[in-house]
Design a protein that fits this description.
Blueprint: H1 17-22, H2 28-45, E1 50-54, E2 57-58, H3 61-68, H4 72-84, E3 88-90, E4 96-98, H5 101-104, H6 107-139, H7 150-167, H8 173-180, H9 188-195, H10 206-219, H11 225-237, H12 243-264
Antiparallel strand pairs: 1-2, 1-4, 3-4
Helix pairs in contact: 2-4, 3-4, 8-10, 10-11
Family: Belongs to the DnaB/DnaD family.
Region (Disordered): 118-171
Domain Phage replisome organiser N-terminal: 6-126
Length: 267
Amino acid sequence: MRELKWIKLDISMFEDEKIKLIEQMPEADTILIIWVKLLAQAGKTNANGYIYLNENIPYTEEMLATIFGRPVNTVRLALKTLRDFGMIDIDEDSFIYINNWEKHQNIEGMERAKKLNAERNKRYRERKKQQKLLNKTSRDVSVTSHDGTEEEQEQERRKKKEDKEQEQPQTSAIIQFWDSNGFGLNNIQGKNQLLSWLDDSSFTQPEKIIVKAMEIACANNKRQLNYVEGILRNWENQSLLTLEEIENNKKEKKKQSAANDGYHYGF
């Protein structure tokens, strides 16, 4: 799963009077490095400035010393200094948190990332369920008694068909499109690889967006997994994470292309 990968640092942070005062201390460089490490750790925890191992276990000075690769006494000095300057605080349960975190960080963006992570977890569970059904379907072999009558055999085939339909009422539109458009009916590995984008991407509607990429691949007669994944990676790299953004980007490119053509022809 993808986690929060960034935090914001004020480009004028070294002009802050607290930082200037810290820079005059004997362990100034180490204290400032630990300050930045605490900021990064708070971003990783993604809990409105709190820093902890989990919601029930706060970090101790010894634990932070191990994580930051610094002596315990140095970490203890840094925590005391940062607390004295009001840059961090420690609550009654020993949980460390960054003061004014919401002032310096994009809380809305972090909450969005947190929500996306929860959605990815949900999609991951759903994908595992679909893969299990997909693998089971691929192993199914039509076994009918040779001694049975044609009517019994037909009933058996009908029952298996109904069972499959009941098993996969929510069969991914991705698999349906894949099977119906020549991507390789028996390419189970390719299907599973594409299904991994359901929970391993930043798209807000991953299933619809993946199908959109497959439609483009078909339109270009490129029914290969790597071509579809190339489209998806391009969209992610351009931060086109919704169908609306993808469509708007397509329209914008058409406008630019038309404008360029008009320029070349003297319009």
